[in-house]
Amino acid sequence: MLVSAQKRFERVAMARGFDRYKREAKREVRLPEVKENETLKQLKAAWKIFTIDGNNFGLYHNYDKILSLIRNIGWSAKDVEQFSLMLIEFQNEPVFHFKAGLFLSALINESADQEFIIHTTYLEKSIYNLGTFNKKIVRIKGDAGKDLGELMQRGHIFLEGNACQGVGSGMRDGLIEIEGNVEDYMGHAMKGGIIVINGNATFNVGDHMKDGMIIVRGNADIRTGCHMAGGIIKILGGYCAEYVGRSMRGGRIYVEGDSCRIDKDIFGGEIFHKGKLVWSKSSDSHDG
Questions:
Q1: pLDDT tens digits along 46-96
Q2: 105 with 147: CB under 8 angstroms?
Q3: Based on CB atoms within 10 Å of each CB, which residue in 137, 143, 212, 233 is the most buried?
Q4: What is the pTM of this model?
Q5: What per-residue string of b and e applies to 89-101 under the rule 16 or more CB within 10 Å gives b?
Q6: 77-86 vs 96-110: helix axis angle to the nearest 10?
């Protein structure tokens, strides 16, 4: 099936258009007042002490550093929500993106509470690695940066905006739901759990995926299921771009829209187009 010029235009617009990730022109938004209690003062002090080593941006190393700083502080889900609003004070710090995401993730995971609200709407800079190692129920009001829900263990992350690259990378279990669009490598090397995208996705959905399920209700750009070894990917929108299943070795891909251009280099797994099996290792067929 040939891809029309219109379809190509839609693909490029999709790839370049959802933020990439540019925010809309800043509007005057009134920041909710945060009353700084003793707990917030202690969390703020821990934040100021915590620094990212210049030669070590490793998740585990820096996450453990945060744990050592907050170990003797007692905090609630409400404190975490309030602290997320305070981050506007620190967003011009070096490596803010990574520091903020990891710090909030540690506060969420190590809290005795189970349900959290995080605000990112008021920030000019995005937060990376929010929900790393997640075990809880987290609602994010706003957009997220790279690697949302990386290495997630269980729980539920609901994002009310868009997300950058690497959503759910290496996740093991749980549910990530995104109201908007996502960028490249969503579900990279995921080992379990479910990701649901209500908007569109760009390149390499389910790249190196091993297990779990990904559902994209909108369109997907090139190389869906690239190097996929297991699990299920469903693209429910009208368009799934070229090279579907490139170097795929296992799992199943379901494409419900009109466009489904299968790659020539596939080594295993199954691909369905509108409910019809169009590629499997047993048939070694390309139909679609």
A1: 999 999 875 556 889 999 999 999 999 999 999 999 999 999 999 999 899
A2: no
A3: 233
A4: 0.88
A5: ebeebeebbbbbb
A6: 170
Between CA 132 and CA 188 the distance in angstroms is 14
137 backbone dihedrals φ, ψ, rounded to 5°: -100, 115
The pairing of strands 276-280 and 268-273 is antiparallel
* Max Cα-Cα span within the chain: 66
Residue spans of beta strands (DSSP E) within the chain: 115-119, 137-141, 156-159, 175-178, 194-197, 213-216, 232-235, 239-244, 249-255, 259-262, 268-273, 276-280
Distance CA(131)–CA(139), nearest Å, equals 10
> DSSP 3-state assignment of 84?
helix
In contact, 205 and 187? CB cutoff 8 Å = yes
